[in-house]
Amino acid sequence: MITKDIYICFEGNIADIENLIKQKYIEVKAAGGLVINAENEALFIYRSGFWDLPKGHVEQDESFEETALREVEEETGLTSMKLVKELTVTKHFYYNKGRWEVKMTKWFLMITNESNELSPQLSEGIEKAEWISASQLDQVLLNSFRSVRESIGFSEVFNVKH
């Protein structure tokens, strides 16, 4: 996996940096979820050769919480989740359809007692939706996006009370 780090050295305040970025990038808002089931497993999707968490774009007049719940359902077939708390916010930059974008994703911790078979959203290129145990997590994270690997507090969410 190829990763590139970007370090910005800038004298000034954070608002100046944010304004500079907004001039160059289109901001895309998204939300997603880390879902933990009653067996203390985390829900992951596999798409384009990487393990990821379900997430997607915020639609007009939709809250981040509503987006996270909808996207988990659409991408995995899971229908009964409860939001516990917001985990973190990640931002990543990418080139899409002739323009640079910065995707700001709000991540939420969710729980479920549902044990139905998962149904990956094939039309979105999702090949698998699987429950991953704590003992499998390190291996899965080796083949995941850096923002997921380093930003989501996996150690604090396993063993969450249902």
What keyword list fits this structure?
three-stranded antiparallel sheet, Nucleoside Triphosphate Pyrophosphohydrolase, 7 strands, alpha+beta, about 35% strand, about 160 residues
Describe the structure in your own words.
It is built from 5 helices and 7 strands. The relative contact order is 0.24. It has helices spanning 14-24, 64-76, 134-142, 146-151, 154-157; strands spanning 26-36, 42-47, 50-52, 55-57, 82-96, 99-111, 126-132. A hairpin with a 2-residue loop joins strand 2 and strand 3. It is an alpha+beta fold. The chain has one domain: Nucleoside Triphosphate Pyrophosphohydrolase, CATH 3.90.79.10. The termini are far apart. The strands form 2 sheets. Strands 4-1-6-5 form a 4-stranded mixed beta sheet. It has a 3-stranded antiparallel beta sheet with strand order 3-2-7. Helix content is 27%, strand content 36%.
- Radius of gyration, in angstroms, nearest whole number: 16 Å
Quickly give the CATH architecture: Alpha-Beta Complex
Order of helices and strands: HEEEEHEEEHHH
What is the approximate shape?
globular
Mean pLDDT: 85
Helix residue percentage: 25-40%
Q: Report the major sheet.
A: 4 strands, mixed
- How much of the sequence lies in strands comes to 35-45%
CATH class: Alpha Beta
Query: How many strands?
Result: 7
CATH superfamily: Nucleoside Triphosphate Pyrophosphohydrolase
Side-by-side strand order of the widest sheet: 4-1-6-5
Write the CATH fold name.
Answer: Nucleoside Triphosphate Pyrophosphohydrolase
Number of domains: 1
N-C termini distance = 36 Å
